[in-house]
Amino acid sequence: MFDVTVSTSCQGMLASSNMVHSASMNKNIEQCSYWLASRHNYEPSPALDKDIRVQVCVVGAGFTGLWTAYFLKQLDPSLDVAVVEQQVVGYGGSGRNAGIVSACIDHSHALAIAHFGRDDAQRLAHVGLQNIDELAEFAADCDFEKTGQLHVALTDAQMEDCRESAAVASTLGIGGHKFLSAEEVKKELNSPLYLGAAWVPGGGIVNPVKLADKVKRKCEDAGVRFFERSRVVELKDAEITTSSGKISADKIILATDSYTHHLLPQLLWRFIPLYDYIVVSEPLTDSQLASIGWSNRQGVTDGRTFFNYYRLTADNRILWGTSEAMYYSPNRVDESCDHSESHYADLAVSFKRHFPQLADLQFPYRWGGPIASTTRLTPFFGTVNGGKVIYGLGYTGHGIGSTRVAGRILAHMALAKESDLLQLEMVKKKPFPYPPEPFRGLAVNAVTASLRKVDKGEKPNLLLKALDVFGIGFSS
Ligand SMILES: Cc1cc2nc3c(=O)[nH]c(=O)nc-3n(C[C@H](O)[C@H](O)[C@H](O)COP(=O)(O)OP(=O)(O)OC[C@H]3O[C@@H](n4cnc5c(N)ncnc54)[C@H](O)[C@@H]3O)c2cc1C
Prior knowledge:
Blueprint: H1 27-30, H2 34-37, E1 52-59, H3 63-75, E2 81-84, E3 100-101, H4 109-116, H5 118-138, E4 149-153, H6 156-171, E5 178-181, H7 182-188, E6 196-200, E7 204-205, H8 208-221, E8 225-227, E9 234-236, E10 239-242, E11 245-254, E12 272-280, H9 286-292, E13 299-302, E14 308-312, E15 318-326, H10 341-354, E16 365-373, E17 380-384, E18 389-393, H11 399-415, H12 425-428, H13 439-455, H14 462-469
Parallel strand pairs: 1-2, 1-11, 2-8, 4-13, 11-18
Antiparallel strand pairs: 3-7, 4-6, 5-6, 9-10, 10-11, 12-15, 12-16, 13-14, 14-15, 17-18
Helix pairs in contact: 3-8, 3-11, 4-5, 5-11
Bound molecules: flavin-adenine dinucleotide.
Residues 59-65, 84-87, 91-94, 96-102, 231-232, 255-259, 262-263, 276, 278, 321, 369-371, 393, 395, 397-401, 403 line the site of flavin-adenine dinucleotide.
């Protein structure tokens, strides 16, 4: 996994000729994911070109920044809000993810109980359920399909894990899991590898770039000003500087997720930037689709630590991703990490193993994107510069739903308004720290090697058992 050849641009993806591209878009950005490539007629907002003052300035126009601006205006429609983005809306993880939306705000209910206690885990679980209902309604015209999710088991032990997590969920009042035998799951999606599955209700699939664009439109309608292609190079007190202008504000909100250490290096104690990789196929013909079934179109994950995740797009392409996350020492997050030929090769092999009937399927789109993970696998929040700068980040690969809740939290923090959300342990407590470099890279190598052995059926070694005692997880 760590012996990779990485190309330095987005040339790994072949642009499809039937896509409508806006002439003014930067070619690299269009090619950084299937979703960004198939975005229609997007006109970025002008860059910041002078010094201005606003009440709240949000840095980063991924889901966190967009939802924060959206909820700020809901809380106070007269507020003067600006959003500053280094590239274009959705350039980061928000425009490059798989679009599989989970109702969970936590990474797993069992972890939430371990970190926050049963009462708070229950609150978090119900916040997640309400959030997904509201998101589904908002995103109805963003190809949102409330399909639920299939957690497929490739071994008997994974089936047991599925049953255990459903049992934990039901103790928190979250029911509705449906267990499928090998025969039943193959009727849903026909892979020879499946031994069973849990069909988990609540979640769904979405086109993430359509969702980001819709939140941006709603924000603009409410009067939020956007400045794209405006990279913040300095943060001082409550003022940000770009190459062509400054914004001073009462409050600055950093919604920069895996890029946050570029502006606040001290936060590296609390998160690690990782890269996940995805490929997307050509559209399936009717007979190709019939060979696998998938008429209920669920987003799918399997039960390994480094699992595959996959879904159908609205035009019946298969999106195939891997959580075999890559850490680029020392905490690199830049274009040089956007591709990994070795991950693409592994994705091709794993796809053919799962669906031999589609062995000839071509995958013209491929890309990687940054994910911020924490030791507890849930986001964290805080303030610096005497409370004038507020941040929220670290969603792992579960950010589509949880960034919407984070937007509410950050908006309430910025306006000092009360909310039950601010009382959540997840908001009040910081995650256990990661070691700094050079130990960080070594630790990631050791943990990754150990987890890979568990995925091959070995028992957890002493290192993993020790991390478990401290509730420390490693996952994208
Ligand atoms: C490959 C991949 C697959 C994923 N799959 C899923 C999935 O299926 N389901 C799910 O729920 N989650 C998934 N995720 C995670 C999810 O996409 C993220 O958790 C979520 O998008 C984070 O949103 P964000 O707004 O906090 O961060 P981002 O979307 O990364 O936004 C941060 C923004 O800040 C901007 N920025 C950074 N620095 C500066 C600066 N100095 N000046 C100005 N702007 C700046 C960036 O350009 C970026 O647009 C996946 C992520 C990846 C990468």
